[in-house]
Design goal:
Pfam families: DUF5908 (PF19265). The chain is mainly alpha-helical. It contains 2 helices and no strands.
């Protein structure tokens, strides 16, 4: 049974002290971009379904 996402809320808190510490850690940007792309696609699907109603 597929899972349907009806709403997606993203909240990010940025702290200057931790932001400086995390810049030294290598982050896989490709994985982050893929997650963002998938989230945007889901949002588009949700908006399309709302308009169909």
């Amino acid at each position: 049974m597929p899972i349907e996402i009806k709403e997606l809320h993203i909240k990010i808190n940025v702290d200057e002290k931790t932001a400086a510490a995390t810049t030294a850690i290598a982050v896989d940007e490709a994985k982050i971009m893929q997650a963002i792309i998938e989230s945007v696609e889901q949002i588009g699907n949700i908006e399309k379904r709302k308009k169909e109603r």
